[in-house]
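Objective 1.3, modelling of assemblies. Example input:
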Amino acid sequence: MKPFAYARPADVAEAVRDVAAEPNAVFLAGGTNLVDHLKLGVARPDLVVDVRTLTSADVSDLPDGGLRLGAASTNSEVAADRRVRERYPVLAQALLAGATGQLRNTATTGGNPLQRTRCVYFADVTTPCNKREPGSGCSAVGGYTRYHAVLGTTAALPDPTAPETCIATHPSDMAVALAALDAQVQVLGPAGERTIPFTELHRLPGDDPSRDTVLEHGELITAIDLPPLPAGTRSAYRKVRDRASYAYALVSVAAVLPPGGDVRIALGSVAHRPWRATRAEELLRGAELTDHSVRAAMDAELAGAQPQPGLGGGNGFKIPLVNRTVVATLRALTSEASA
Amino acid sequence: MDAQVTLTVDGTRHQLPVDTRTTLLDLMRERLGNTSPKKGCDHGQCGACTVLLDGQRQLPCLALAVAHDGAEIVTADGLAPAGELHPVQQAFLDADAFQCGYCTPGQVCSAVGVIEEAGRGWPSHATADVTAELSPEQALTHDEVAERMSGNLCRCAAYVNIVPAVQQAAGVQA
Ligand SMILES: Cc1cc2nc3c(=O)[nH]c(=O)nc-3n(C[C@H](O)[C@H](O)[C@H](O)COP(=O)(O)OP(=O)(O)OC[C@H]3O[C@@H](n4cnc5c(N)ncnc54)[C@H](O)[C@@H]3O)c2cc1C
Ligand code: SF4
Ligand code: FES
Ligand code: FES
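Predicted structure (tokens):
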């Protein structure tokens, strides 16, 4: 591991100044992703600024009836919080479907959505990877693509040597629920505070796959706010994976269904960012939710999906799988609602 | 780059300079000679290193020592006074819940955490309805224990005996 300096400043303002002043500085929260990357050589900072004890660890009520999750609240605490379980079950379920008990006890609200991709080539410093080493190429194209994207990519076989190529997915379960809930991200940066809608936090690769989010260097997540939901809103998270526990998603679905209102759907592990199925949502607006209408709406959502060929048959299976997972999730939510 | 840290491990306070890159796991094993937490993967994947860090089961292989200055750590070695066994340790013996034993200190610490979390009514992925209250008995059914312990891998596959051991230690009918 490359040597680095460690700092635990007095408060968040100082932490932001410290990171902003050093181009090769990073924030540290629970460390379950960053420390792994320090060991692998994927992250090679000169300065590590520890914010775990500086940001709030509380889950608190907001005046509008929503909830504020302090950046240092742990995944376990948020998933166990009564208000989260009763009002935002989709979030409790997503958190509980992620990682393990030990990891959730350490992982934080700020760190979880900012975890990096689990693309195996990203984690292997001996292979080209545009996300880790801009301009080096993408080893995943035509390689092991089982966990890779089918949405938001440019082509079924992107140019592996092009600097903009990246077919990675975002691995967080929590982030998929937060996208469906229209959460708001509270950020403190060198230029002051700003609020970012959660659905705009993560980027598509665009021309710079090394950037996962729109956060600028030195910008710190201080809290994530959950907006209030109408009474009687139902929500659920469904994760499909290679084994029953302790595995990343092949695909996942977060759905939020207000009574008599319009359904919100977010998809996980299908794109470089949590994917709000806005096209399907639009087609389902005012419509009755039946297996048929949902399947048709998802067909439209997935019309532009690009299966990636690769080892073991590639990842084309994700397209029908995510469609069926949405149908199953909404079928359960609507039958719960009519029960 | 060095930094000074103070840690309490199994009741003994230690103050020592550490390289900022040192994990809590390496500090305990290499510097303090406490080899109870095992190094299986060193990447947060196997659970062999599980300890109670500030009262909660966590993974010291992914924790920088400098970031945990002042922490209280209990390893499997410190769960009970010398010469005695913690109820979870006794249950692992009674249920024959191990073979080679390499994963066992991590399993035991994880089980202590699982029982405590169940006592607080924490739900898990195996919980049918996360909105409902959860009694310790409901939180420690076979499927619940298997899910809650899924972060502790056992290469000898002693799982069939580990689940009843955890239930026995918690006083739950298997
Ligand atoms: C074996 C294993 C299995 C896993 N399985 C799953 C899974 O199934 N599903 C899942 O969703 N996750 C899974 N995870 C990932 C885990 O959820 C993340 O590692 C964790 O949530 C990261 O949170 P942290 O607080 O430890 O972040 P850290 O590791 O401390 O930080 C992660 C990143 O966020 C940045 N950061 C942290 N806090 C802030 C902040 N407040 N503001 C700005 N930047 C910040 C850091 O600089 C770093 O780049 C798994 C991890 C492991 C090791
Ligand atoms: S998919 Fe993205 S993260 Fe994976 S190798 Fe290609 S550029 Fe790197
Ligand atoms: S050594 Fe820590 S989880 Fe494997
Ligand atoms: S008893 Fe051998 S690894 Fe678990």
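Chain B is about 30% helix and 15% strand.
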